[in-house]
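I would like you to sit down with the record closing this message with an eye to the fold:
=====
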Amino acid sequence: MLEGKAQMKETDMPVKMQSHAMAVASQALDLYDVSDSTSIAAHIKKEFDKIYGCGWQCVVGSDFSCFFTHSQGTFIYFALEKLNFLIFKGASS
């Protein structure tokens, strides 16, 4: 596990949820090759949907841009190993 080696970039998540996000990302990196970012993202999304309810989105990669609206308290962006992780729950209109 790589917990503690993550570099937080931005978040509005509660601390406990932040820790869980980084732990799940670390677990995904243990299960999948670092080049398989689709499987890593799917693993994280499924775990967050299971624990915190449906509607979570996850983007994993070394270079990406995005623009989105999220529900307050559900956003985290961090780096772990060579990848960046963006996890959020979409805002309902």
Notes: The helical segments are 15-31, 37-52. The first strand starts at residue 7 and ends at 11. The mean pLDDT is 91. The two ends are 37 Å apart (CA to CA).
